[in-house]
Each structure stands twice: as C-alpha cells, then as structure tokens.
Design brief:
The complex is a heterodimer of chains A (about 375) and B (about 300). Chain A has about 375 residues and is α+β, with helices and mostly antiparallel strands. In chain A, about 25% of the residues lie in helices and about 35% in strands. Chain A has nine helices and 20 strands. In chain A, the strands form four sheets. Chain A has a six-stranded mixed β-sheet with strand order 6-7-8-3-9-10, sandwiched between helices. Chain A has a five-stranded antiparallel β-sheet with strand order 13-12-11-14-20. A five-stranded antiparallel β-sheet of chain A has the order 15-19-16-17-18. In chain A, helix 2 packs across helix 3 and helix 3 crosses helix 4. Chain A is elongated. The two termini of chain A are about 25 Å apart. Chain B is mainly alpha-helical and about 300 residues long. Among the domains of chain B are: about 130 residues, MetI-like fold (Orthogonal Bundle); about 35 residues; about 45 residues, no CATH class. In chain B, about 75% of the residues lie in helices and about 0% in strands. Chain B is built from 14 helices and two strands; from the N terminus they run H-H-E-E-H-H-H-H-H-H-H-H-H-H-H-H. In chain B, strands 1-2 form a two-stranded antiparallel ribbon. In chain B, strand 1 and strand 2 form a beta hairpin. Chain B starts with a helix and ends with a helix. The chains are: A alpha+beta (about 375), B mainly alpha (about 300). Chains A and B meet through strand 6, helix 2 and helix 4 of A and helix 9 and helix 10 of B.
Chain lengths: ~375, ~300
Amino acid sequence: MTDAPPIIQIQNISKRFGKVTAVDNVSLDIQAGEFFVLLGPSGCGKTTLLRMIAGFELPTEGRILIDGQDMAGIPPNKRPVNMVFQSYAVFPHMSVADNVAYGLKIAGVRGGEVRDRVAEALELVKLGGYESRMPDQMSGGQRQRVALARSLVMRPKVLLLDEPLSALDAKLRAQMQFELSELQEKVGITFVTVTHDQDEALSMACRIAVINKGEVSQLAAPSDLYEYPANRFVADFVGSVNIFEGKLILDEPDKAAVDCPGLGKVYLNHGVTGPHGADVWVALRPEKIYLHIPGEGKAVKAAAQDAPDGHNFARGTIKGMSYLGDITLFEIELESGARLRVSRPNLSRHDQEDFTWDDKVSMHWRADSPVVLLG
Amino acid sequence: MAEQDWKANKRVFAAVSLPTLLWTLVFFVVPMAIVWFYSFGQNAGLNEIHVSGTLDNYKRATEWLYLGIFGKSFAVAALVTLICLIVGFPVAMAITFASEKWRPWLLLGIMLPFWTNLLVRTYALMILLGQQGYANKGLGALWGGASWVKTLVGLQPLPTWEPVPLLFNNFAVVFGLVYVHLPFMVLPLYAALDRLDRSLIEASLDLGAGHFRTILRIVVPLAAPGIVAGVMITLIPALGAYLTPDLMGGTDSQMIANVIERQFKKANDWPFGSALSFILIYAMFILIALQSMRRKAPEAS
C-alpha cells in the first residue's frame, strides 16, 4: 500500500466482558483515505472493535493509535473520529441544521462559518434546503444522511459507521452503497464500516477484515476475499459456496489434485503447498460450475479439457430449482448422494426453460476455479 | 376477530365497567357534588346547612388571610417540587444507568416507603429531627469533635452545642414533604430516561460534548415529558398536603388543607370549608389543563 503511516493502528487488542471474549488479540492497520470494512456474523466482535476505536468501550488489553497517537485514556469526545450510529441517533428535538451544527458549536465555531459549513455538509449528502426540517418529518434514509452530515461536518480523521445500511430497504441500500463510496472518495476521509452484509462489504470496501469469534479470519481486498478465501469460514461467509472434504493426492508447483469422496477428483492447475495425503477442503463457487443439457457428453469433454480425463466433471440429477430472474439456482444431487449448488445466468429469455426437475445433467468446471483450503 | 367481540358487545362492556362506575359514582361523584352544593350554602343551626346559592363563602375565601395561605401553600408545594426534581433527577439517572443486576433493587429502594403507612413514616422522621433526635445528636457530636480538635491545636474550645430547631417549623414541613413525595418524582423520571435511546447520548459525546453538556442539551430536553409528569404528580398532592404540615409544622406553617380541616372540625363551618376545597380543586384543574395544553402544542405547530 502507501508509505504513509496508517491512520489507525490496532495493536493486540482484546476485549473481555466477564468470561466472554468479544475481541481476541486483534492487530490491524487501517490506511489513511481507505474505505475499510469489518465484516462478520452478528456477535463476532466487530461492533465492539468499532466502539473501542470510538472510545465507547475500553480495551482489556492492547492499544489503539489514531494518527500515531495512543488513545488510552482519551474519552470519546476528545478523539479525532466521529461515528454514524446504527439507529442514526439523530437528536429528535433539534432541527436538521441544529443537529449538524451541534458538534461545530461545541468545537467553538461561530456565526456565519457554522451556517456555511452546515449548508456545505447538507449539500454533500444531498439534503440541501432541509435545514429547518425536524427529524420526525424525515424518512429513515434522510435521517441517515443527517447523521452522516453531522459527522462529516466535523472533518474527522476517521468516520466510523456502525451497520450504516441495515435499517434501509433493499433498493435504497443498493443506492446508498454507491453513494457512500462516492462520498468517501469526494471527502477523502478514512471510512471504517461494520457490517454483516457481504454484498455491502464487497461493493464498498477497499479492504475487508473478516471477523470470526473475535479474531481476524482474513484481511484482503474484496475480490481476493471472494476468489482466494483463506479458510472455510471466509469461503462460506463471503458469497455462496460448495465445500467438499478430500485428500490431497497430488501437489506439485504447477498442478494439484484432491480426491473428494463427495465430488470426485478435483484437479487444479497450480500447487497448493500442503502435505501429501493431508485432509483438505475444496471450495467451489456455484457460478463457476457449467451445467450441460443431457446428451452433450462430447461437448462437456471438450469444455473440461484443461483437466485430465475423469477430473473436474460430475453427473447428477436436478433436485431443486429457484428462478431468481437474472440467474437460476440449481440444487443437484450427485451420484455420491452429495448435493451441489450451481447457478446459471439467464442470458436469453428462454434459458430457464432448458432444465426441469429430475433432469439428468452433467457439469464441469475449470482447473483454476476450485480453491483448496487447509483449514 | 373472536377476541374483539367483547368490545363490540355492549352488555359485556357494561357488566365489566358497571361496578367501577357505580363505586366512583356513589363514593366519589355524589359526595363531591354534596360538597359543591354546600359551598353555596350557610350554616342554619348546628347540624343544618341551608343551600341558598350564596357566594359569600367564595367571597370570604378571597380575603387576604386565606389568599395568603393559598399563596404560601403554592410556594411550599412549588419549592418541594423543585427540590424533588433537583434531588430526583440524578437518582433517576443513576437507576437508569445502573447495571441490570442492580436496577430492580434500586427501584425497590425507591418504592419501599410506600409499604409503610404515611403516619408511621412521618413519626419516624419526627424522631429523627426532634430536639433530642439523631440528627441533632449527630450534629452535636460533630460540633464536639471540632471543638476537641481546636483545643488540641491550642485554641479556645467552641461554645457549648445548642440543638438546632429542625422540627415544628417551615423547614420541617418542606423536608417532610420532600421525603414523602420524592418517589413520585423519581418514578416518572426513571420511566422517561429508561426510554431514551442510549446512542443519542453516545452521539453527543462523539460530537465532542462533555457529560454535563450532554445532560443539559440532550438528556433533559428528551426527558421533558417525564419531568412534566413528575412535576404534576408531585405538585398536586404537595399542594393538598395535610398530615405533614399538621404534625411537623409550627404555628406559622399551616397549609390550605389544614385550614380546610379546621372548617370541617373545630370551626364547624362546612360551607366555607367546601368553598375552600373547591378553590383548591379548581386550581389543580387549571394546572392539569395547562399541562395537557402544553402536550398538544407541538402537534399543532
């Protein structure tokens, strides 16, 4: 990344509530200007981590540095960060302008400058002209923008967002994902967002830290996280995936093979550097499996030719279908009895008519599609 | 639908509400109506009241003597309410922000006095505040200690301790009324503060406000409905307080309820007592009306 020092340094942070360990020895650096996402299931400790950065929780162990300064003993109202709360926490007894001006007035900004900066912040979140509105006259999405403006107007070094989109409906959420990314680029402030929604994380983040049981499971860019998950938890949590247990039977610098009792022989065109005969898991994304109409045997062979004969090929029966418009999801029972999820884009208007329940189908996948996981 | 039927069925509704309605009618509305009629009457013999429609009783109630006592009752009740609010708000906040484990016990502590008869509580307080009470004994011990320390460093000892008059004066009345009414203030405040979204407080801190400013600008305005409810529920009974001024007050600390009591008993002037009672009731009506107008105002704007 850049040579500039990280804006946030989290060093060996642990947080215990009584006997429960919410955050377990986490260390990570967040770079200035980055859109950083903490992703994980509910109760994984991601919100606790965010609240420790804001100063609402004190770490049991470890330390947090913001812009090089140790935050130990510094209360929330003295930290150079601002937070957008999950419930937005817009003050209901103040107008939009008063909400946005609240922090500025405390900071000692006076008169015309307050008005200018409030107007500027509201313009930024597309709420220009809403100054005199009361929060109860606004929709959830608008209230969130007020909360955003109220934090951004403070020009913090870091903006913390706790599940910012969870209370919005699906359409608005998708729109706000774009807007948040755009806003972040425009203001250049480091954003740290907590979410349990992988779509949200993938679409907005520069980098994502996947948190599981208080620990960082993997820290990577969105596409790396999706295409090169480091372990079963990440593979399963980020996106949809088929996971099969198997034994590593071949592992050379330029090829590898895993024998999975459930799926058959899986061939990869790269090494995995695991011990021979080790128990491993193969992860295969549903969209990376090609589905063939029965009787297309020759075509399948041709398509799967980047793998040795008998590899990366499976036969099964369609046991479940769900048509989602843009894609159709198939649940296929393999000859081993295991089930495989396959998704197929509906490229033409009639694609969904190609298959039906109990059809015998064959499938193949490319040699660079499966991911071998050691843990 | 089935469970809604009873609402539609007028007979069931009547059967359920009739006992309460009858009770209220016979033991509240009718006696109040009698008192109201008496207030327009005059004594016609020892046990007879002639309701003549006269306004003399109300005229007499506007004499300076009685207006003064009304005014004083208001002042005492307002002072009691103010002290309850100042003392009760931090208590309510402490309960709200106490841990889950402690909160029920703290609430129990607030409600515990209700389990004891008011008279018993008042006498207990009197034992505490009396000339030879524990409060004076404690103060005396402190005084003695201070005197001893002075002699220790070679100074003249303090003059002998004179007990402070803590009972049978206005101070005792206010003290006793605050003691009795504090739970009435704390409970509505607690109810309002408990509903407060905690993230609003955190947002205020996050935006740079200190704790004091957060309480003043965020917590107090948002607890306003609870404050108004607490003020009303404290002010109204304090205004009509009878037992505390009667037992703990001095000759100059009678409140309007004591004057009313005297009309019905010693003075045997029921019509005048009735008129005073209704003036007090009208005053409370006005207070409640003001409160409900205040509640409606934001909707109109």
